[in-house]
Amino acid sequence: MIKAIKDLAAERGYVIYEQPGFLNIWGFRANTQVPNSFDDQIHVFTVSGTPKNRVWAYWIFKCTTDPGTFWLKNPEAKQGTAILNPGQYVNSHAIGRHRGQYTALVQIAPLTVTRDYNRNNVLDFENGKTASGLYGINIHRASRIGDTFRVDKYSAGCQVFKNIKDFDFFIGLCQKHRKLYGNKFTYTLIDKQMESMNKIKQSNKPSKAVSNQFPVKPSTYAFFSPQAVADSIYSGIVTKNLDKVLKGLFQITDTEEYKKVNELIKEKQGTSKVVKGISTLLSKVFPQDPFRSKYRAQLFRIGLKWGAKGWLLSGTESEDETEQLTTKEDAIIWDKSGNCFRVPFGTYIGDLIQTQNGVTAFQSTDGRPYFIHTTSIKTS
After folding, report:
1. What secondary structure letter does DSSP report for 13?
2. Is the same domain home to 71 and 186?
3. pLDDT tens for residues 268-294?
4. 317 lies in a domain?
5. How do residues 325-353 score in pLDDT, each as one tens digit?
6. How many domains does the structure of the chain reveal?
7. Do 156 and 80 lie in a common domain?
8. CA-based angle 286:287:288, to the nearest 5?
9. Residue 69: what pLDDT?
10. CA distances from 284 to 239, 296, 300, 305 (A)
11. In the predicted model, what is the mean pLDDT of the chain?
12. What stretch of H or E contains 326?
């Protein structure tokens, strides 16, 4: 995934920030003219780890980058409702208050928009007028509870998160960025709708955008090829080249993609009596640090979990009945030495060991024991 994003950035002359903890915030607008739905995505990625063990952390959130039907029909400005144009807007946002109500990223530098002045319920990218300025194009949430399924009044051109937990997690990342690099954030918008229309014009085909071509899986947009990824990982395992392995793992976004690659790697082992999956092969070829910690970081990012029986993922390596713990509020965990760490709401922290006297002991994803107040967690 990160390689595809870097290629896209290089092609368009966009910047990708590689300082540890420095957030890259990219929106991907779906190829559809239908408003009022959360069919777009915000990708947030940053370098984490140590100088000797740099890995990319990558998150994808459902959102809308378009205004809702209400504001298309009832624009706040007489020129029409603002639709943010694609591009990279350096230092365009800062942590502030969305309309004075709650913490969000607010616009602090000029953005370029197209004004949809038709006053109907269809997004108009071709006939509107373009302008640049300060329009309050913020990055904020929809409802303060759960998921929102219709955009309606939540966006008059803002970039709006569908899920409140996703947004709260995002703001937590932004606050960490602010402590390290100050209160300025760059926002990049990629517009599949406009790209599709431009291709149609260039090929002299009828000017009609094909709807709903934006893929469900973001990595598909990033040209994810299970076979190519499997080839890279397996070649790296056979030749003991960890860079090749990591190159492949970087392109896997979630457990569904992992399963596809995992099956292809099993097929490569042919008629071997014992066919092994990715994680088993890696543990045998790279059993020690610093190599082990590098590939483990990628497996955790993809969504695998570490349990008593090893790596856990239904349908790939093994399954376990251990209870998995997630924080239901901002919480504090601590280790046996009393060292404390703050964990944000909605974080998967590991597997249950035992609960006693209001304190829960658990095993973290890297196999270490920690403790947390039982009231701060929920099990699954």
Report:
1. T
2. yes
3. 887 655 668 888 888 888 888 778 877
4. no
5. 888 888 888 877 777 777 777 777 877 77
6. 3
7. yes
8. 100
9. 80
10. 13, 13, 18, 18
11. 79
12. strand 324-327
Q: Looking at residue 364, which CATH number applies to its domain?
A: 2.30.30.40
Question: Could you tell me if 244 and 232 are in contact, meaning their C-beta atoms sit under 8 angstroms apart?
Answer: yes
337 three-class SS: coil
Is the domain of 284 the same as that of 329? no
Domain assignment of residue 314, yes or no: no
Q: Which two tokens stand for residue 53?
A: 């063990």
Nearest to residue 38, comparing CAs of 5, 60, 8? 60
Identify the domain containing residue 143 by its residue range: 2-216
Same domain membership, residue 244 and residue 210: no
The DSSP line for 169-217 is HHHHHHHHHHHHH-S-EEEEEEEHHHHHHHHHHHTT--S-PPSS-S-SS
Mean pLDDT for the stretch of residues 162-188: 95
Is 293 found in the same domain as 168? no
Residues 266 and 353 in one domain: no
Task: Specify which of 21-35, 126-140, 151-165 reaches the highest per-range mean pLDDT.
Answer: 151-165
Sign of the four-CA dihedral 279, 282, 284, 286: negative
- The Cα 2–Cα 230 span in angstroms is 17
